[in-house]
Write a structure and sequence with these properties.
Structural class: mainly alpha
CATH class: Mainly Alpha
Strand content: under 5%
CATH architecture: Up-down Bundle
Order of helices and strands: HEEHHHHHHHHHHHHEEHHHHHHH
CATH topology: Growth Hormone, Chain: A
Mean pLDDT: 85
Largest sheet: 2 strands, antiparallel
Number of domains: 1
Helix content: over 70%
Distance between the termini: 37 Å
């Protein structure tokens, strides 16, 4: 077995990529199954069950303190607004802790062991969701676990390829397809169990998914270049960064700031758009009411369908020397994500009051979202692995993911306006934020290219 593993790590491929890519693909697929399965239910669980009854909410450990802290800053809030704040804090902190998880891997445990630690913590968190009283404690375990898991498995994908390997962008797109395959099935399984059988059945299914991911990671561990990468980092981590490397760091931090706005409007899919799906969309098909949480399967399904198509388009553009570079792709992604809200503005005008409208409004919006995400998210991950200085690679991956912390918290904050503003005005605000950020990407494109390279 060891000799076969050595060949895999030294160049043996499967479908044009190192075999370890597919181990990481399946591990991440099940981890994302667990994360998105829980996320599909989170806002609905709070707005329809946990926080609706004040006595039930008061029984949640730590809720009274959290409620007092938030109301002291934002004033009295409705159940929807409080749920939006908690959603934003949770999804935000999920992307804050990867900065420290990256440092933990770089300085102490290495990427391989830190991924294991993160998976175990997340499994504990999912199973704690079975207890209403432990709701906030469960979120805490999930936040810590994701911080250990997320930056290090993404970095391991980059470590499968030598510097300058042109397959790296396509590898991250394949990896991204694994993420979204798990995210597609999770609302169908966890969402259906949660809404039709019982909330805790849905959360429990998410925990089982996380355990499956850990088993796959263990079975394929010899195909992942974990030991030698850590040793290489240990030999380099004491040297100071060069001026060029520091410029790359500053540039990545600037791009992270722009990334914040993208995630602030994109992640409304799990927050206000999920509420639109639940309250303003007709889900009855052939006499059966489909769980509204299935809405969150639209995006991963479309990513899985269209990521290969977009890869082929980029390959064709590359053959003509016309493929947009990473900065241009990210700008296009922001323009698309903001532009998607045009459809929701029209939906708000077409479905007033207590009426329910067609699911096609959401299908069209999510399709444009999906194109925007494919232009930005996997490209951003790939860019970090290409540009970040090697001694702090995992740390910089954590910095990139930390931008999603601010973006996801902003999702929760922006979501509090959903009850305060006319729905068309609310979606117009999100449209403006996305378009403005896309324009900024193109305005700074040339100076950024001079710093990190025109063809990155």
């Amino acid at each position: 077995m060891k000799s076969i593993v050595a060949k895999n790590l030294n160049g043996k491929e499967f479908l044009g990529h190192p075999a370890g890519l597919y181990v990481l693909f399946l591990t991440e697929m099940w981890e994302r199954f667990s994360y998105y399965g829980m996320r599909a239910l989170l806002v609905l669980y709070m707005t329809n069950y946990l926080l609706v009854d004040p006595a039930r909410a008061a029984d949640v450990l730590g809720y009274s303190t959290l409620n007092s802290m938030l109301t002291s800053v934002f004033g009295e809030m409705t159940v929807q607004q409080m749920s939006s704040q908690i959603y934003g804090l949770y999804t935000g902190l999920v992307y804050f802790t990867p900065f420290f998880g990256g440092m933990l891997a770089d300085k102490l445990f290495g990427q391989y062991k830190t991924v294991y630690l993160g998976g175990i913590l997340m499994a504990i968190g999912h199973f704690l969701m079975a207890s209403e009283q432990a709701f906030l404690l469960a979120l805490f375990f999930l936040i810590l676990g994701n911080g250990c898991f997320k930056p290090n498995i993404s970095t391991q994908v980059g470590n499968l390829y030598k510097e300058g390997d042109e397959r790296r962008d396509s590898a991250f797109t394949i990896f991204y397809m694994g993420i979204n395959l798990g995210a597609f099935f999770s609302p169908l399984v966890c969402g259906t169990l949660g809404q039709k059988v019982g909330w805790h059945w849905g959360f429990g299914a998410a925990g089982v998914g996380m355990l499956l991911g850990l088993v796959i990671y263990w079975l394929g561990s010899d195909l992942i270049p974990h030991g030698q990468v850590v040793k290489k980092q240990e030999s380099e981590e004491k040297r100071p960064l060069t001026k060029t490397e520091w410029n790359a760091v500053y540039t990545l931090i600037f791009l992270c700031v722009l990334n914040i706005v993208f995630w602030a409007i994109y992640e409304q899919q799990g927050n206000t758009l999920q509420l639109w799906a639940d309250q303003k969309t007709d889900w009855v098909f052939l006499g059966w009411e489909v769980p509204s949480s299935w809405f969150q399967s639209f995006n991963p399904l479309m990513i899985f369908l269209f990521a290969p198509v977009l890869n082929m388009i980029w390959s064709w553009q590359a053959s003509k020397n016309k493929e947009p570079n990473s900065i241009a792709k990210m700008g296009i992604g922001c323009l698309l994500c903001g532009g998607a809200y045009i459809l929701m503005i029209l939906a708000a005008m077409a479905v007033p009051g207590e009426q329910k409208g067609s699911v096609m409004w959401l299908v069209g919006t999510v399709f444009v979202f999906t194109m925007g995400e494919l232009y930005l998210s996997p490209i951003g991950l790939s860019l970090v692995t290409k540009v970040a200085p090697k001694p702090i690679l995992s740390t910089m991956m954590g910095v990139w993911l930390m931008s999603s912390f601010f973006g996801n918290y902003a999702t929760g904050y922006l979501g509090t306006f959903y009850d305060k503003m006319p729905k068309d005005s609310f979606f117009m605000m999100l449209f403006g934020l996305g378009i403005a950020t896309g324009i900024i990407f193109f305005m700074v494109r040339k100076p950024v290219e001079r710093t990190i390279g025109k063809h990155v």
